[in-house]
Design goal:
By secondary structure, the chain is α+β, with helices and mostly antiparallel strands. It is about 30% helix and about 25% strand. It is built from twelve helices and 15 strands.
Length: about 425
Amino acid sequence: MKRQWYRLDNAALIFPAIIRRNWNNVFRVSATLKEPVDPEVLDRAIAELKPRFPTCFVRLRTGFFWYYLETIAGAPKAQEDFAYPLTHMTRRELNTCCIRFLYYKNRIAVEIFHSVTDGTGGLILLQNLTARYLTLRYGTEIPAEGNIVDVTEKPRAEETRDCFLHCGADRAISRAEDTAYRLRGTPETDRFRHIITGILPADILKGKAHEQGVTVTAWLAAVLAEAAAERQKAEGRTGKKARPVKITVPVNLRRTFGIHTLRNFTLAVNIGFDPRLGEYTHEQICALMGHLLAAETIPQRMAGRVAKNVDLQNILLLRLIPLPVKKLFMRTVYALTGENKGCLNLSNMGVVTVPEIMAPMVERFEFIIGVQYTYPNNCSVVTYNGKTYISMIRGIRETELERLFFSRLVELGIPVEIESN
């Protein structure tokens, strides 16, 4: 079969240029089943899924001006889960395949290089892989509904498009904003990633958010900001020495613009407060986070943000610069400005649903993002079957942020069950 190739979408361009061993360039989605995984059946499911999701089964290639993605000839085999989640994908591995399929006991996990897709695209792939696996394993006919597709149909054109190119406003919005407080700690020398997962009753969490008149994402961002602010105080950064405390929230543009794509279609906004202006109550922080998130994510402002990124991509001089020079330029710009506007990410995938016949066979879903150059902590959230799974990852030894965050949830009346790797 002839190989296809795809230009990197607007959000994907930066990732190949800034690859380093101390930065997790992948994210993980996983499904835990009620029974142990059969690896042979999983391999069959992967192979049958490959033609339906061509933009996911790709390798990273180097062109003269840009990197690009090329479909791989055969389907990759599932591996038994090894080491620790989100081990670094080397350039050699990316040149072979940009996706890992893993299994361990009852769990199926997929780790994906971020140039391929975002969390939503990865979750859709996982849901379909799980559905196909269960069909092959038990003969269960799972209907094509929700995120589950018919694997025999051809990919829709919209699924493979770079949708950023079609959603920009006529005027770009400036990305200028204050530099935020930076979380720091003692790096793990072997690049081990600590993961602490808090399991919460989804109805209680939702109730607490609604008490404050905000979404669950805004409410969790408020509690995370409180924890980060406490870290800053403990470091003696108070008064004029303090920095704004901001949480980076990725926004799923599929909902904003009503477009369905399996490639990257997410843009991040930073929301928070400035401690130099005075003390804030929990209620005030919640209100502020809710208003900021609502205001920043209306379609018009998101279109302006998209236009800013696409305008940079379309600068003729930049397009004509050879890739080695372009890579150096992108690395420098990212090091100076890429991560200094927020404290950490809060990526909430929302509620995951599956067809009714499939639900009794799936125990849970999880979503884990990696740490970045200068974000030693990050947080990802997913809800399934009445439970919310909050995964806090860190590449440093200090556990203070997680302790402050989960303790604050308990103080606010939410029971939390803790798991750790």
